[in-house]
Design a protein that fits this description.
By secondary structure, the protein is mostly beta strands. The protein has no helices and 6 strands. The strands form 2 sheets. A 3-stranded antiparallel β-sheet has the order 2-1-6, with no helix packed on it. It has a 3-stranded antiparallel β-sheet with strand order 3-4-5, with no helix packed on it. The two termini are 14 Å apart. 15% of the residues are buried.
């Protein structure tokens, strides 16, 4: 996903392993921000931030 696509309340697929096939249903719970050069956000199923590249919009 792109930084512009990250919106609080948006339903997404979260891939715990980048490029993997396992995915989990999640909801974005924060605005995106940069951490150590990586754009991250919070989702409802993790207690820490996730890289937005591990997210895919759920349709």
């Amino acid at each position: 996903m792109n930084k512009e696509d990250i919106k609080i309340g948006k339903k997404v697929w979260y891939y715990p392993i980048f490029g993997g096939t396992e995915r989990k249903e999640a909801t974005i719970t924060s605005e995106p921000y940069e951490m150590c050069g990586t754009i991250c956000c919070f989702i409802n199923i993790c207690s820490s931030v996730v890289d937005i590249e591990n997210l895919e919009e759920r349709i």
